[in-house]
Amino acid sequence: MLQKADFQRLFEYTIWANHRLLRAAALLSVPDFRRDMGSSLGGVRGTLVHTMGAEWIWLERVKGVSPSRGFDEGEFPDVIALRDRWVTIEEHRAAWLRGLKKDDPAEKIRYKNLQGQAFEQPLWQIVQHVANHSTYHRGQVVSMLRMLGSKPVATDMIVWDRERDAKKKRD
Question: I need a surface site. Which of 11, 104, 115, 147 has the fewest CB within 10 A?
Answer without folding.
Answer: 115
